[in-house]
């Protein structure tokens, strides 16, 4: 396999990992928000909404950071 082919496979693997990482972060933050709502706010979904948005923001920040590093 040529050097260009290996680089493409490596890039594809990194981008796949970024997607999995993003999904895992958002999932964990949603689960944490649900747990907080069940224990501290049973009549609402405030913690779920806040933690979901926080998880999305953190995962986007990490994706941007990793893709910037990938493009260097």
Summary, kept brief:
The chain is mostly helical and 72 residues long. 88% of the residues lie in helices and 0% in strands.
Radius of gyration, in Å, reads 17 Å
Kindly state the percentage of residues in helix: over 70%
Please, what is the oligomeric state? single chain
Q: What string, H for helix and E for strand, traces the elements in order? A: HH
Low-confidence stretches: none
Terminal CA distance reads 23 Å
Outline = elongated
* Helix/strand class: mainly alpha
Strand residue content: under 5%
| Overall strand count | 0
Give an overview in words:
It is elongated, with a radius of gyration of 17 Å. It is mainly α. It has two helices and no strands. Helix 1 runs antiparallel to helix 2.
Provide key terms for this protein.
0% strand; mainly alpha; 72 residues; elongated
Write the layout of secondary structure elements.
Blueprint: H1 3-40, H2 46-70
Helix pairs in contact: 1-2
């Amino acid at each position: 396999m040529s050097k260009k082919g290996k680089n493409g496979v490596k890039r594809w693997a990194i981008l796949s990992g970024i997607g999995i990482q993003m999904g895992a972060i958002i999932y964990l933050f949603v689960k944490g928000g649900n747990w907080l709502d069940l224990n501290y706010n049973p009549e609402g979904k405030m913690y779920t909404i806040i933690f979901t948005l926080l998880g999305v923001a953190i995962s986007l920040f990490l994706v941007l950071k990793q893709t910037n590093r990938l493009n260097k």
